[in-house]
Design a protein that fits this description.
Layout: H1 3-29, H2 36-61, H3 69-86, H4 91-114, H5 120-134, H6 162-169, E1 171-172, E2 180-181, H7 182-200, H8 202-212, H9 214-219, H10 224-250, H11 261-271, H12 283-302, H13 310-337
Antiparallel strand pairs: 1-2
Helix pairs in contact: 1-12, 1-13, 2-7, 2-10, 2-11, 2-12, 3-4, 3-5, 3-10, 3-11, 4-5, 4-10, 6-10, 7-8, 8-10, 11-12, 11-13
């Protein structure tokens, strides 16, 4: 095999081989890793971060970036809990409020970036801090649970409805006996929808064109501003879906439960660049990236690795995957030109 063929093979399949090798290693080193129960834990752990990562992917496609997804998800968690526990609203109202909130945040981010010309990192970073502060004001920084004391001295009498908790805790009786959680099914459906939208629709192709060469996309008549704003709205909505599922799984509004959502979601989206040598944001790669993060964390947990090493390992894997992908891709492009 020639060097060029070997390099092309490594670019396209290197990450998949790494994923398989990691799974085999954990299966041999950790008793019980290769089991249906462990697989469910892996998918359940990545479902929420995977949904958020798919939103980040949409912003990356248009050459943007959204740092506010973690705070949007946590805000959706707190908003759903507040609406049901404090305001005593039904589940569908709580879900609708969260989706509208996510869409509005995404719209504001898009307008700041497109109309006000604020750099995407600064705009979404500012929104992140805004939401972190805003979600704490109604409860004075406390988590939300049934029976909690309110600022006026009264007690919250509302509860999480069974229909809402179903979203986070129910398991479908499919191939495995009651082992497929609803969040996993929602994650797969969102991933499929985003993949079809980006890869097989005119709108998705125009978003890729904008990310590759915005000026060229403008010359062919693409409404660049509209598509960029749409990408951030999608990101906000997917982040709010993640927050809803997290609230439904926990059954309370835990103010600190979304601390790692941003880092894990960004890692999954960026690792997706290395899947099948795509070297670009894509929904399939993001889903595989989320799965990779889940397998890595589940394996480390089952091997009793210290919790403080997990972020280091995730960061090392992310850096290696991106360097490996883009370095080899640049070498391959240089070889073809020569």
């Amino acid at each position: 095999m020639r060097n060029e063929d070997l390099r092309s093979f490594a670019i396209r399949y290197g990450f998949i081989i790494l994923l398989i090798g990691l799974s085999v290693y954990f299966s041999l080193a950790a008793t019980g890793f290769f089991s249906a129960r462990s697989a469910v834990f892996v998918f359940q752990s990545v479902a929420i971060t995977g949904i958020l990562a798919l939103g980040v992917t949409c912003t990356l496609v248009v050459d943007g970036f959204d740092l506010s997804i973690g705070s949007v998800a946590t805000s959706a968690l707190m908003l759903s809990a507040y609406s049901m526990v404090v305001l005593e609203q039904p589940a569908y109202v709580a879900v609708l409020l969260c989706l509208v909130m996510g869409a509005v945040v995404g719209l504001v981010n898009g307008l700041l970036i497109v109309k006000m010309k604020v750099p995407d990192l600064l705009a979404t970073l500012g929104m992140m801090f805004l939401l972190i502060g805003l979600q704490r004001i109604p409860t004075q920084g406390n988590s939300i649970a049934t029976g909690m004391s309110l600022a006026d001295g009264s007690t919250a009498e509302g509860t999480f409805s069974a229909a809402f908790l179903w979203l986070g805790r129910h398991r479908f009786d499919l191939v495995l006996e009651r082992l497929v959680p609803v969040p996993v099914v929602i994650f797969l459906l969102v991933a499929l929808a985003v993949w079809i939208f980006l890869e097989y629709t005119r709108h998705g192709r125009l978003m890729y064109a904008i990310g590759s060469n915005q000026r060229a996309a403008e010359l062919v008549g693409a409404n660049v501003h509209r598509y960029k704003i749409m990408a951030y709205v999608i990101s906000g909505v997917t982040a709010s879906i993640g927050g809803i599922l997290l609230a439904a799984r926990l059954g309370r509004g835990d103010i600190a439960s979304g601390n790692n959502l941003l880092l894990d979601s960004v890692a999954a989206a960026l690792i997706g660049f290395a899947v099948l040598g795509a070297a670009r944001p894509n929904a399939f790669g993001t889903a595989i990236g989320a799965l990779f993060v889940g397998i890595l964390l589940q394996g480390m947990t089952m091997l009793n690795a210290p919790y403080y090493t997990q972020d280091f390992v995730k960061g090392a894997v992310l850096v290696c995957a991106l360097v490996f992908t883009f370095y080899l891709s640049s070498k391959s492009s240089a070889a073809r030109k020569a």
